[in-house]
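Form 7-S
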Amino acid sequence: MERPIWLIGMMGSGKTTVAPLVAAALGRDWLDADTAIEDRTGRTIAELFDESEIRFRAAEVDAIRALAAADAVIATGGGAVMTEAAEIMSGSGVVVWLRTATKTLAGRVGDGSNRPLLTEGVAALALIERERREHYSSLADVVVDTDNLTPAEVADRVVEAWTNVTSQV
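Output:
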């Protein structure tokens, strides 16, 4: 069985867009951690966040733990690196950080109204990115910069990086 490929990065970095492209190129399934959380809890991400971020993060860790056994490309939530989910990802697969400049992220997430952590607007984006940057950096086996690239180009770079990492093992 292949190890999972975990895509990490900020909201708007392209994880959910790129995951199916990478999976198709590698002949693997792709999964979305947020969808897994919703399936497991029967609640939306927004509902879980409305209740408490702590409850959401606990559900996220449970979902990541379950997904760790999958032979898949997995798009994670941006904050998964802030919890014990980071250790689960690191111990089970190859972690790829889709690194994206804050200015690019802001353009991609729009007004942030559909993002639970951006209810105050995209001004919070830079603060969140600064808070998470070191976590992304220390967890990543591979870094792919996404600025000025199409999703297909990002997927190609992820596949190339994954091939390089797995050929060294």
